[in-house]
Design a protein that fits this description.
- The structure is a single chain.
- This protein has 279 residues and is α+β, with helices and mostly antiparallel strands.
- 24% of the residues lie in helices and 21% in strands.
- The protein is built from seven helices and ten strands.
- A hairpin with a 2-residue loop joins strand 9 and strand 10.
- Helix 1 crosses helix 7 and helix 6 crosses helix 7.
- The longest helix has 20 residues.
- It is elongated.
- The structure holds zinc ion (ZN).
- Zinc ion binds next to loops.
Length: 279
């Protein structure tokens, strides 16, 4: 599944080719994605200039004068810019062609992605309740601690909650908890301020590095520039069940938390003293 770093990489990859140019045509080949692609887009967009390419959480926002096109890559989507004529493949569901000859194409085999239109400046309902962006100053240990007050939810599920902070997917949650030496099942109200500061720093660092390197390598993800990302070789715990911890050499363990597999080191990531959880 494309995670925040892949989405950011996609934005950076497509922007130089299409920013500031006008839409020539919109082609919808398959409207039935997670939601129907609005059928008025082929009438709405032509003639409009693309003013900005932005990202909010895992949504790609293409800003025009009259509104914003919102694209989500879902489970298996990819977005790329084609220069010159290209043949259409089976899962190429949506194209925007621009006057400069570039075509922005959405490919999505499993069709959990989305293309939506936000009229005017009123934020789309999918965006309104999102938490802070992890790489901005709005995400810091103070906002984190106040969101955690009186909550007993496991810290891994907490940091994956989009209302707390956006874009921390399963891979990055597992890696950040390892980096901060926090057991994934720790109830958030039992985490010390010191650990929260470490956790915030770990989330920012790991996502930042992943963005710089183009995201993780996932079998159905291709960067906006067509090259796969290459972060996978540096993963410390994700996908390493049964292998030895790079810090203490003990065997990494796997548990299920909120339906998701979680790998961690029971020796490096201990629960706070006196805290017990069901294993
Ligand atoms: Zn260890």
């Amino acid at each position: 599944m494309p995670e925040l770093p892949e989405v950011e990489t996609t934005c950076r990859g497509i922007e130089p080719h299409i920013l500031g140019t006008s839409v020539k045509a919109v082609t919808i080949r398959q409207a039935q994605l997670r939601w129907l692609i609005p059928e008025h887009l082929p009438r709405e967009l032509p003639g409009l200039t693309l003013l900005a390419v932005e990202r909010r959480s895992k949504y790609i926002l293409l800003r025009f004068k009259t509104g914003v096109l919102i694209i989500h890559l879902g489970m298996s989507g990819s977005l790329r810019v084609l220069l010159g004529a290209q043949s259409v493949q089976k899962h190429d569901h949506f194209d925007i062609s621009f006057l400069n000859g570039a075509t922005l194409r959405l490919t999505d085999p499993r069709r959990f992605g989305a293309v939506l239109w936000q009229d005017g400046v009123q934020e789309h309902k999918l965006l309104v309740n999102l938490g802070p962006e992890p790489l901005t100053d709005a995400f810091n240990h103070e906002t984190f601690i106040s969101a955690a007050a009186n909550r007993k939810v496991a810290v891994k599920q907490f940091i994956m909650d989009n209302k707390v902070v956006v874009g921390v997917g399963n891979i990055y949650a597992a890696e950040a908890l390892f980096a901060a030496a926090i057991h994934p099942q720790t109830p958030v109200n039992k985490i010390s301020k010191h650990k929260f500061i470490k956790l915030v720093a770990a989330i920012k660092y790991i996502l930042g590095v992943a963005i710089e390197r183009g995201g993780t390598t996932l079998k159905d993800f291709v960067g906006g520039d067509g090259k796969p990302g290459y972060f996978a070789q540096e993963l410390q715990v994700y996908g390493r069940k049964g292998q030895s911890c790079n810090l203490c050499q003990k065997q990494l363990q796997e548990i299920r938390l909120g339906q998701r597999s979680t790998v961690f080191c029971a020796s490096c990531q201990r629960l706070p003293r006196g805290v017990k959880v069901k294993s």
